[in-house]
Amino acid sequence: MIIGLTGGIATGKSTVAEMLKEFGLPVVDADFIAKEVMQPEGAAFDEVISEFGSDIVQEDGTINRALLGQRIFSNEEERLKLNAIVHPKVRKEMRRAAVSYTAEGHAHVVLDIPLLYESNLFHMVDRVLLIYVSPAVQLQRLIKRDQSGEEQARARIAAQIPIDEKESRADGVISNDGTKAETRQELEQLLSQWNILKKP
Ligand SMILES: CC(C)(COP(=O)(O)OP(=O)(O)OC[C@H]1O[C@@H](n2cnc3c(N)ncnc32)[C@H](O)[C@@H]1O)[C@@H](O)C(=O)NCCC(=O)NCCS
Ligand SMILES: Nc1ncnc2c1ncn2[C@@H]1O[C@H](COP(=O)(O)OP(=O)(O)OP(=O)(O)O)[C@@H](O)[C@H]1O
């Protein structure tokens, strides 16, 4: 089974991904792959520079992510251009990684895809696992984690479908408003229901 792990920015996907790894499931991380393809030797680097200009390259030759983030989260047209360059390469690599885990004998593979809904990637997964927090908690956690201002955090949240609109299309929803221990318990229950964790 291919499980699509998703949510909204800072709702707790990476936190849950770590728990899933502890349960022995392989996790393919779209954010990680997106970072890799944008490295100087990566498949998207040249195209990103020709689209966004050499201003976004730092002295060490890598892309200035903070600057690129400022640009794309304040300008939808630029965001869509970046998505069009990066996303096909990320999807290709994710499929390759999933096939490879399956060939190694894993019955279940998790694809951590932040933009599963926005990019309509339901066809890539068998089940959607949504990590939910209420919008107020989402904003607070994002500001705290990124040490960003409220305006910047709101701009990032606004670049995605609101978390409250994602619940209805999910096969499983885990609320991460409480403690991490509570989230882990909910996760364990859901994975047992889905026959992914065998009950002792
Ligand atoms: C603009 C970039 C360089 C900013 O880097 P930064 O280190 O600040 O953020 P990071 O990559 O850790 O992303 C954090 C979160 O932001 C959200 N996010 C990132 N890119 C996008 C986007 N294009 N649209 C909406 N939300 C996004 C996701 O929830 C993601 O988990 C980076 O986000 C990026 O390359 N984005 C384009 C690729 C992309 O869409 N990645 C997300 C899934 S593949
Ligand atoms: N239950 C929780 N209680 C308190 N803090 C939490 C909880 N779950 C996650 N966090 C914190 O909230 C922040 C966001 O969580 P995390 O990075 O897992 O989200 P994410 O969905 O992977 O984010 P992104 O979309 O940016 O990749 C982190 O600082 C994390 O430590």
TrEMBL record:
Top EC category: transferase
Matching InterPro entries: Depp_CoAkinase, P-loop_NTPase
GO cellular component: cytoplasm
Kinase among keywords: yes
Catalytic reaction equation(s): 3'-dephospho-CoA + ATP = ADP + CoA + H(+)
Keyword Heme annotated: no
Family note: Belongs to the CoaE family.
PANTHER family (UniProt xref): BIFUNCTIONAL COENZYME A SYNTHASE-RELATED (PTHR10695:SF46), DEPHOSPHO-COA KINASE-RELATED (PTHR10695)
The protein, known as: Dephospho-CoA kinase
CDD domains: DPCK (cd02022)
General function of this protein: Catalyzes the phosphorylation of the 3'-hydroxyl group of dephosphocoenzyme A to form coenzyme A.
Cellular compartments annotated: Cytoplasm
NCBIfam families linked: dephospho-CoA kinase (TIGR00152)
UniProt KW keywords: ATP-binding, Coenzyme A biosynthesis, Cytoplasm, Kinase, Nucleotide-binding, Transferase
Gene Ontology terms, MF aspect: ATP binding; dephospho-CoA kinase activity
One of the GO BP terms on file: coenzyme A biosynthetic process
Positions of ATP binding: 10-15
E.C. code: 2.7.1.24
Pathway: Cofactor biosynthesis; coenzyme A biosynthesis; CoA from (R)-pantothenate: step 5/5
